[in-house]
User: Which sequence fits this backbone?
């Protein structure tokens, strides 16, 4: 099949993850993969982002497919159930707002900047080597640490299920994927359950 | 004389479990699959040749290659 320019967006996704090891402020760029899918689904009522442009999905497809890092087994039934997908979306949102709240506290100078990346919402990994400080308000960096934590955590989960199940099994429970599908369903007046 | 007619096998999507990721669209050699309004995958039964590529790729494993009853 003929490759189009957007079939190479996985390079950006990979670069994004690598850049976070050098300068955490690059994490802000991740907002693109947060707003683009939402805008496409709200304005056009499609999952055009998932279907075409998502570099993360492509990356999993490549690693699990071409590089053979996947068992290519069926995902268990409960993982594709609406209960799990919607539940994970809600959980993700709660954690996301907690991250925003922590950012707010640093902006309000009620809390200190924590130079850690929190993986799987649990493990705090020191990350001070990627912060070179002082140019912006510490709150700017706090958001970067928080957002990068979200991105790295979802990558780890995605890699995990890529190995266990099919390459792109992350797409089954990816909160952005679930959310954009929900928006499309609402927009096109389709049943949600 | 009864002629043995083979019922062609085609891709069938379990729509309620489809996550509309579009992985099936990308691998179909016949361009038979499309994503309907960001909600679910739809297979054009006239184009599908039942090769099974989409079913293999589908991360949710919600495509079956079955005999298509007209
Ligand atoms: S479901 Fe998530 S990872 Fe998969 S293509 Fe959509 S946004 Fe990307
Ligand atoms: S690959 Fe499977 S889940 Fe994804 S759109 Fe196609 S049928 Fe639906
Ligand atoms: S079975 Fe083959 S031809 Fe039919 S929709 Fe799937 S990939 Fe396309």
Assistant:
């Amino acid at each position: 099949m003929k490759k189009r320019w957007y079939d190479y967006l996985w390079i950006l996704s990979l670069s994004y993850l690598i850049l976070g090891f050098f300068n955490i402020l690059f994490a802000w760029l991740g907002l693109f993969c947060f707003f683009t899918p939402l805008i496409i689904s709200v304005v056009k009522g499609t999952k055009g982002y998932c279907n075409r442009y998502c570099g993360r999905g492509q990356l999993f497809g490549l690693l699990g497919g071409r590089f053979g890092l996947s068992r290519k087994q069926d995902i268990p039934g409960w993982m594709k159930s609406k209960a799990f997908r919607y539940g994970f979306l809600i959980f993700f949102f709660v954690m996301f707002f907690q991250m925003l709240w922590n950012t707010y506290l640093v902006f309000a100078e009620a809390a200190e900047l924590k130079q850690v990346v929190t993986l799987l919402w649990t493990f705090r990994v020191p990350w001070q080597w990627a912060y070179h400080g002082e140019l912006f308000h510490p709150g700017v960096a706090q958001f970067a640490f928080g957002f990068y934590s979200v991105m790295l955590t979802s990558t780890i989960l995605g890699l995990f299920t890529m190995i266990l199940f099919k390459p792109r099994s992350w797409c089954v429970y990816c909160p952005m994927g679930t959310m954009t599908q929900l928006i499309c369903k609402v927009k096109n007046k389709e049943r949600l359950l | 004389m009864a002629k043995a007619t083979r019922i062609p096998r085609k891709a069938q999507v379990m729509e309620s479990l489809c996550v509309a990721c579009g992985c099936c669209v990308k691998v179909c050699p016949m361009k038979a699959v499309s994503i309907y309004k960001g909600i679910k995958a739809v297979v054009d039964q006239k184009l599908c040749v039942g090769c099974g590529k989409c079913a293999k790729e589908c991360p949710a494993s919600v495509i079956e290659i079955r005999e298509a009853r007209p």
In short: Chain A has a mean pLDDT of 95. Chain A touches chain B at residues 1, 41, 45-48, 50-52, 57, 61, 72, 74-75, 80, 85, 165-172, 177-178, 180-181, 183-185, 187-188, 190 (CB under 8 Å).
